[in-house]
What we know:
Largest sheet of chain A: 3 strands, mixed
Oligomer: homodimer
Radius of gyration of chain A: 29 Å
Mean pLDDT of chain A: 86
Low-confidence stretches of chain A: none
CATH architecture of the largest domain in chain A: Orthogonal Bundle
CATH superfamily of the largest domain in chain A: SLC41 divalent cation transporters, integral membrane domain
Number of strands of chain A: 6
Helix content of chain A: 55-70%
Structural class of chain A: mainly alpha
Strand content of chain A: 5-15%
Order of helices and strands of chain A: HHHHHHHHHHHEHEEHHEHEEHHHHHHHHH
Largest interface: A-B, 121 and 120 residues
CATH topology of the largest domain in chain A: Tetracycline Repressor, domain 2
Amino acid sequence: xxxxxxxxxxxxxxxxxxxxxxxxxxxxxLPAGDIAALLDRLSHQARGVAFRLxxxxxxxxxxxxxxxxxxxxxxxxLGTAEVVAAFDHLDPDDRAELLDELPAGxxxxxxxxxxxxxxxxxxxxxxxxxxxxxxxxxxxxxHARRDETAGAALTRVKDRGHAAETIYTVPxxxxxxxxxxxxxxRDLLLAEPDEPxxxxxxxxxxxxxxxxxxxxxxxxxxRGILAMPVVDRDNRLVGVLTIDDAVEVVEQARDxxxxxxxxxxxxxxxxxxxxxxSITRARIVWLFVLAVSAILxxxxxxxxxxxxxxxxxxxLFIPLLTGIGGNTxxxxxxxVTRALxxxxxxxxxxxxxAAKEVRVGLTMGSLLGVVGFAVAALVYGVxxxxxxxxxxxxxxxxxxxxxxxMPLVAKSIxxxxxxxxxxxxxxxxxxxxLIVYFSIAKAVLGI
Amino acid sequence: xxxxxxxxxxxxxxxxxxxxxxxxxxxxxLPAGDIAALLDRLSHQARGVAFRLxxxxxxxxxxxxxxxxxxxxxxxxLGTAEVVAAFDHLDPDDRAELLDELPAGxxxxxxxxxxxxxxxxxxxxxxxxxxxxxxxxxxxxxHARRDETAGAALTRVKDRGHAAETIYTVPxxxxxxxxxxxxxxRDLLLAEPDEPxxxxxxxxxxxxxxxxxxxxxxxxxxRGILAMPVVDRDNRLVGVLTIDDAVEVVEQARDxxxxxxxxxxxxxxxxxxxxxxSITRARIVWLFVLAVSAILxxxxxxxxxxxxxxxxxxxLFIPLLTGIGGNTxxxxxxxVTRALxxxxxxxxxxxxxAAKEVRVGLTMGSLLGVVGFAVAALVYGVxxxxxxxxxxxxxxxxxxxxxxxMPLVAKSIxxxxxxxxxxxxxxxxxxxxLIVYFSIAKAVLGI
Lengths: 447, 447
């Protein structure tokens, strides 16, 4: 058995050493999925070479399994004939995703050479807005009829199965051709041939073609549904969303959330092969915007420069306090952002979230504040200790509340919650935290 | 069609208003998967009530779809009879997961009442270490023999299909009963009955039972494999990892990474129903540890208190500079942590990563440094401008490098990279950044 017999770096070396024969042998010993995964991790040049080393029919299979990004980059350096062959072999939904990646000219050229039938199913998918379920579903499915028997349905599955993306979940249609249930191929196969579909089918979990792809995919994944029927506004079946496509949608969405919680955009290629330029591009804008908004903290401190001059010791605690604020804020922000993604929280819950975070922040602030007071009082005297303790309580409460509410605000004004969460909240908490800190200091120390 | 006809809050209200009849009707109109999703979001008390409202056979199905956490909480307030019924119905891998959740006593009691056969398959799964593929695989599968025909294999699938967790991917065994391929039910069904399996089967992507569950699940998900055969050290088939279980493993792992990048532990229940106490518990330890390590920054500033007293203006830039360092560090850390999770980077790449991040940090630092110099020079004079510019360059380079390398170090000493990433890096960058800042200041300003 062969998996992991060859890793991306070894393959890269083989190719750069010009040992193409060895590379070809090693590659053809792997299953298509593993080859695709390897190619996804290769450098641009090596990917082109490796792909050409594959026997033709294996090549189309592998192309199928590549990420849309790699497909696009690969197309740049493949001959038209190779591209056409690979493109024909794709499922309509993968084809639509790739077309989104390609320059309009190339896309048109590719669509032109499809058979009319293939062009139609692709057009169905392309007809729905980006980010909708319609764009990610497969319009090629086999259905069963409510009024037929398991045997009849099974025969149709066998006849039409070749074209369908999946045959393991069979949507059931009533006389009006609208979705009334699903039956698993398993039940079809294990049932008596004369058993009526109506008895075998179960209530379907389904989606509308213009539903949000991310939310639907998450539902599909959470419940481990192999294929979710997709219907149009009149409840007529238009396609199925298969779990592997759903997983892809969910993973892409989480990559973006994760990246933005880390103040960057997701990389579109494997880290080690991403150029310094593209990595910088994915980060610099965020860093710049955050730095600019952080100038706010400089202005705040200027206001209190007098206070600082009278008691320089106050400066010692600035990073500690802003750090606590930033961490508390990002704890709340990431929690709520995640809860939004999993539908545990909706924008309607803003008050409940705020109420929760106020109490959590207050609890944590009190615990931490007491310790802060004790330590600071011992070293710098009771007055400074008091300032620190009080500031920690206020900052924690404020940061948790802001951090919890921000993602909801973002969502309700149709901004990706992740954009607003962590980084902005820490900057915001830094500035407001400093105001709180020095106001308390002035009050307590009577400066 | 009924999905989303009822949301968790409405159900909660119905139950707390004692409108159980209405709740029962609303519930029984939903597919089991939707009911489970609803129950997962209900408060502890409401969940128990809602579950009892379900007809017995629907109830076991729903229990099956619940998260292990909800199952555990549900068991606390169900009668033994109800529990036993639900427990019997679980697949061995789900059963093993639930048993991990339960107190040893309860677990033993539940295992006792299983049929010997059921107990055996559960024991198989429990025999593998936590976090291994063996723990998440299903030991109930149907196989085909290399030397038989499609027809013969299909018959076996029909006979044994009821017990198996999936029949859509059929592992193929040779005479030595070791894995030599897989054939999809689709190909079995669409093939001529007399076609030999040897011609239908394809090279399998498989895993070893003691492989790491997370890495294997990620592979399975990345390639959209419906079921991955699992073999023991002698390459004998012991089970299959189905994609729905793989997705669960991957999502749990990402929840943990995401949570820790946000300086907290993942919540084990829906946010809105998590108690203030449990939310606080998930955050306070992190916050406390970070706060304590942030005391480092106070000590650093104390060393430079003299410098600060001579030039209080230097204090104004502290939050700005630590902010830039923290953000740069977490950008690099989250990038590399993700690359580790997707196998794009291994601990062996530490030098390549460092080299990359040094250059990225230097690039971003220079861009930002020039702006920083210009702005600061205009407002506070060229000397301060120079200090700020130089400091930004050094901090960005350092933070990016440390942020990129840290996750690899963590991984190589067998610590979850996410633990080390973002929060610790920002604290670390704060302290070192301040040293850099004041050293440069002393040199440039000649204090």
